[in-house]
Each structure stands twice: as C-alpha cells, then as structure tokens.
Design goal:
75% of the residues lie in helices and 0% in strands. The chain has helices at residues 14-32, 41-46, 58-90, 92-111, 116-144, 150-174, 182-202, 209-214, 218-228, 238-261, 265-268, 270-287, 291-296, 298-304, 309-337, 339-366, 370-401, 405-436, 441-459, 494-505. Belongs to the major facilitator superfamily. Sugar transporter (TC 2.A.1.1) family. Residues 485-511 are annotated as: Disordered.
Length: 511
C-alpha cells in the first residue's frame, strides 16, 4: 500500500513549527531590514553619507546604497551553495545552528557600523547567513513533514518570511520619528534577537529522519518518525513503519547511484536535470513577478503616487501586513487543491492583475489624481494577495520536495542561489529603470510571468499527498533510484527485513 494511502492522522507538530518559524522569520527579516534602514536620515549621518540628491557628494551615497543591496544578495548566493554541502555533511540542525552564529556576528557588526565599508562587509556576512538559513529551512520542513500535510508545513516557510518583511516595515515606521541613530540601529538589532531565539529553538527541533538514515542512525530516525508520523488512534505504528521502509529502501538506492554516477548526477542524469530546471523555474519565477521590486521600493513607489514620507511608510507596513494575512489563508489550500493548481492560479492571476495595475499606474502618471492613485493601490493589494496565497506558500515546497534525499540539500541550495542572483539583478536594475522608463519596467515582469505560467502548465506535476520517495516516479523511472517495480514484486532486502522486524518489536519511546 503506498504511503500516501496510509493513515493520515499524525501527532501535533506545534513545537516543531513554532521553533522552525523563527528560522523563516529570521530569513524574511534579514532580507527586508534594509527597507527600514535607507529611509532613516540618521543612517546617512552615522556613516558620513550625503543624503541630499542634488548635492555633488550624493553620487557616492547612491553607490553605497546600491552596494549594500547587492552585496547582501551576493553573500546570500554563496550561503545557499554552502548550505547544500554543509547540510549533507553536518545535518540540517547543525547546519542551521552554524548559519545562525554567523548571522549574529554579521548583525552585530551591522548594528555597530560607523563607516560605509564596515556596513558593507557586515551586509555580506548577514547575507551569507540569511541565504544559508533561507535554503535550509524548506529542506528541513519538507523532510520532517508527513506526506498529507507537507504542503502547509513546508509552505509555512514562505508565509513566515512575510512576517519578517512585515516586522521590518513596522520597525521602520515606528522609528521614523526618532532623530538619533537608534532609528536605524534598533532595526538591525532585532535581527540579533531573532537569530538568538532561533538558535535556542534549534535545540528542541528533531533532526531530519532521512538524513539520520543516510548516516546509519536508523534507531534515531525510527524514534523521530514514530513520534511525529503516528496517528493518535494508531496502535501498530503502521504509518510510521511503512514510511520508514520507503525511506530506508530509497536511500540505499540513492547511495548506490551516488557511487555509480558521482555528485554531478544532478546535471548529468536526465531525471535529475529535469528536476533542477523545474526547481529553478519555480523559485526564479516567483521573483519574475516583480514582487521584490514592489516590496523593496514600495515606499518610494507610494511617494510617486502622491503620499508623504510618513504616509508611504505606513502604507508599506499595511501592505506587508496584508501579505501576511493572505499567506496564512493559502496554507491549508495547498494540500487540499494541490501545488500545481495553486501555482497555475497564482501565476495566471498575477499576470492579469499586474497588467491592470500597470495600466492604472500609467494613467496616473499621465493625469495625476487621488482617484487613480487609490485604484492603483487597490490593485497592488489584490496583486500581493494572489502572490502570497497561491505562489509563495507553494513555491518552496515544490522546489524542495521534487529532489531525492541525497540531492535535496544540493538541489535546493542551487535553486535558492538562482533566486538570490535574480533578486540581485532586478534590484540593481530597478532604480535606473524606474527613473528612465517608469511604469514600463513592469511590462518586463508581465511577459516573464506569462512565460512561467505556460511552462508550469506543461511541465509541473502535482506532488500533493505523495511521500517524498514516491515523487521520483513522476519524473520517469530510474532503475537506480525509483521505488517502483525494479525489485520485482516488492522484494525486501535482508537489512530492510531486519529493520522492520526490529521496529515491530522494539518501539523506542521518545519523550
């Protein structure tokens, strides 16, 4: 019986979700804290930068701001690649703990920076750590979640990342009226607080059972599966035992494939190459919707619609809060309707709404009025509702779960690295593009979103409800890695039989 048809009740994941949420919160806040920084006059005074756009020295200021934006995502790209290697060697939890320590160091330097060079170096360090956490969290959540609820458990990463953006937006608004350096240093310090909270939580988070099995720690893996993947009215551990058998069999084949094909099989074997392309298309597609450009420059955008500085900051905070609400609304829909349907609805609706919003912004630029500004703003709220509800809660789940266990950390790291590099591209182009072609910049994103929607229509399978080990079969049978008929009528090797016998008689109790 396939694992997806087994008992669908499981024990409470509240503890895992609460502690893991701090990692996603940390990721989102690390990405967004610059929004609460560059709008503060005291930031420029503390670092000796000229804030006057018409001053001869403002060119240097503009270069520094562009550098602190870009260097963060460059560090994030390296952090993503590093996460793949470290996650497989040290485990998901130790990998996260290492990244958090690095984040604390970088955030402390950021908070106390007294010169532009000091702040730029700190941004690279925090970018590296944030990218590491950002790439590892969906891997961890995907691997500890049971098949039937993996959509909302892994999808919560994207939703809580929005909480980080919301926190940064409200921190920026709350400190706007403070004239001292506290106005920009306090938002940096919040990053340290979040990192320390997450570090404490990691000591209460179980390790990935799939990673434990890959390292031969089968007893520890069984204890975690029995604790987290057993229904409250189950008396024979059938759900956990069946999943444990699938994990063990799959990893045995993965190890054999690794010995035969080496670590470059992600690019050399067609079944894996298909997955890395799909994973990159999914995560890069999220950024090709213009979400980061709108989010990171929304305060300036609102000012262009006629709002004052304080009104723009308040509207930006409200925008991020609205995004959080719709992100959590979308969580339970992922497993109910499936990842494919949710992403298709998201990209198609984003294409339509962004097209209308771009037209309205164009009309406002031609004939400025509060009416056109209000309608444009309303469609941006509809836009972010579609994005967070349908796309963000599903993209990281799909980009992670389609890889086999031995390539999941590596594949996800490469995909999130591509996301970081895409962010770097769009953010570096945004100021110049908005100053030269204005609203026409968004036409690029409309075209790209349409391309992604068409691609997903033809190539994106639905993975909802399947065990991670069953997803292999969606990408074509590979004798070295699939669980299907390659062992005849489901023959079990001697080691698997011994493990099943042990788990049937010795059921480790986990407090």
């Amino acid at each position: 019986m396939p694992i997806s048809d087994c008992h669908k009740n499981h024990t409470d994941f509240g503890q895992v979700i609460i502690f893991a949420a701090f990692g996603s919160w940390l990721s989102g806040y690390g990405l967004a804290v610059i929004i609460a920084t560059v709008g503060q006059p005291s930031f420029y005074a503390s670092l000796g930068l000229d804030p006057d756009p018409i001053s001869p020295g403002y060119g240097y200021t503009r270069d520094i701001i562009a550098t602190v934006q870009g260097i963060f995502f460059a560090g994030g790209a390296f952090g993503c690649l590093f996460a793949g290697a470290v996650g497989n060697r040290l485990g998901r939890i130790r990998s996260l703990q290492l990244s958090v320590v690095i984040c604390v160091v970088g955030a402390a330097i950021q908070t106390g920076a007294v010169a532009p060079a000091m702040y730029v170096v700190a941004r690279f360090v925090t970018g590296f750590a944030t990218g590491h956490v950002f790439a590892t969290m969906p891997v961890y959540l995907t691997e500890v979640a049971p098949p039937h609820s993996r959509g909302w458990m892994a999808g919560i990463h994207g939703s809580v990342v929005n909480v980080g953006y919301m926190t940064a937006a409200w921190a920026g608004f709350g400190t706007y009226y403070t004239s001292s350096s506290f106005a920009w240093r306090f938002p940096q310090a919040i990053l340290i607080i979040l990192a320390l909270c997450f570090l404490a939580g990691t000591f209460y988070m179980p390790e990935s059972p799939r990673w434990l099995v890959s390292k031969g720690r089968v007893d520890d893996a069984w204890a975690i599966l029995q604790r987290l993947h057993q229904g409250p009215d189950s008396t024979d551990d059938s759900f956990a035992r069946e999943e444990f058998r699938l994990i063990h069999d799959q990893l045995a084949k993965d190890e054999q494939a690794l010995r035969n094909d080496g670590r470059w099989q992600l690019f050399t074997k067609p079944t894996y190459r298909k997955r890395i392309i799909l994973s990159v298309m999914v995560v890069v597609g999220t950024q090709n919707t213009a979400i980061l450009v709108i989010t990171n420059y929304n305060a300036l955008f609102y000012q262009s619609l006629g709002l004052s500085n304080s009104e723009a900051l308040l509207t930006s905070a409200g925008f991020q809060t609205w995004a959080v609400i719709w992100g959590f609304i979308g969580l339970p829909l992922s497993d109910r309707f499936g990842r494919r349907q949710m992403l298709l609805v998201g990209f198609i609706s984003i294409t339509c709404v962004l097209t209308i919003a771009t037209g309205l912004i164009s009309r406002y630029n031609q004939t400025p009025s509060k009416g056109w500004a209000a309608v444009s703003l309303a469609f941006l709220y509809i836009y972010v509702s579609c994005y967070t509800c349908f796309i963000e809660v599903n993209c990281f789940t799909v980009a992670t779960e389609i890889f086999p266990s031995h390539l999941r950390a590596q594949g996800t790291g490469i995909s999130i690295c591509a996301l970081m590099l895409t962010d770097l591209l769009w953010l570096q182009l945004a100021p110049t593009a908005q100053a030269t072609i204005g609203w026409q910049y968004y036409i690029v994103f409309i075209v790209l979103t349409t391309v992604h929607a068409v691609y997903f229509w033809f190539y994106l399978p639905d993975t909802a409800g399947l065990a991670l080990e069953e997803i292999d079969q969606l990408f074509g049978k590979d004798p070295a890695t699939c669980l299907a008929e390659d062992q005849g009528s489901h023959e079990k090797n001697e080691e698997t039989l011994q493990i099943e016998k042990q788990t049937a008689t010795d059921t480790p109790q986990v407090a």
